[in-house]
Specification:
381 residues; alpha/beta; Peroxisomal Thiolase, Chain A, domain 1; five-stranded mixed beta sheet; four-stranded mixed beta sheet; 11 helices; EC 2.3.1.9; acyltransferase; Probable acetyl-CoA acetyltransferase; Thiolase_C; Thiolase
Amino acid sequence: MRTVFGKNRGGLSGIRTDDLAALPLRELVSRHPGLEAARIEDVYYGNTNGAGEENRNVARMAGLLAGLPVTVPGVTLNRLCASGGEALIQAGRAVATGDADLVVAGGVEGMSRAPYVLQKPDEALPRQMALQQTTVGWRMVNPQFPDDWTRSLGECAQGVAEEKGIGRGEQDEWAARSHELVAAAYDAGKHDGFVLPVGDVTRDESLRPESTVESLGRLKPAFTRDGSVTAANASPINDGALAAFVGTREVAAELGAEPLGTIVGSATVAVSPERFAVAPVPAIAKLLARAGLSHKDIDLWEINEAFAAMVLSTLSELPDVDRDRVNVNGGAIAIGHPLGASAPRVVVDLCRELKRRGGGIGVAAACIGVGLGQAVLMRVD
């Protein structure tokens, strides 16, 4: 289950981040009345910011707030934009090694509620102190880092796209495609029973079905005066949470639940921080090499749309990938990118679409700030 993804200061912004984390977990458990909740052996949640109401191990708080027995532990993981993906991977490893047979994995981000922070000064009586935002990106930057490493994510993605000759028009086309496909998926009922409405919010709030290349083209650049990345061809700031059961097939059979997919493998890699936009490329290469597969063996792809510039830069280095098989129901530009919940969303959506198509093999990938990339290989029967 996942919540609808709310827009910045939108319909979910009045919900504490720890309460938001509990919503899909509580719903997930309630939909399996035969489950003894104490049987859940751990809760793995991804969370990126961790500076606000989720600061005290939000996985544990989500379990308590969702009404799980106090005996169910929890752990919060942070791999920035792939935090929730890391939660799925670590949960899968726990099951594969026999350390557990049923856990919960997912993630949460309440970006609307990310607080300002005040760095503790070096001197006892400082003359001035500056508040820093914790919503997204760098803060309290170490002066030893080169300036190129700590530029905004949008500016870095834009730089890589320019290097590859990917312009504003192509980025706006990809963004319009995302809105069109997400709207079509909702209209076709593909998210019925999966996306949990919250209050009056029944669809992802950043979705703008009326978006066209022409309307998107009227927005001004967001990061540099004459740049190509805008607020419209980048993912927005969002609130949302996702929770999934990860366990053995035997437990699934006991619960009468059909497995959505199997984690076959994963790979996480690092590149120079300013080139994070193409970090999914070596992650995918490493993943497929381990599995003995090629790009042509993959039925569907999900690449988290942090920026259209980032997706297109990644695809420019994957010429064998059929773009019609990438993000077939749209992506984060329209759905939203609540950081801790984003990577598990692409994994789950990949599996759900493969299931609708009768099964197959898919790859879910994400770029990650500070020069990381992650890819997960899923098999759906």
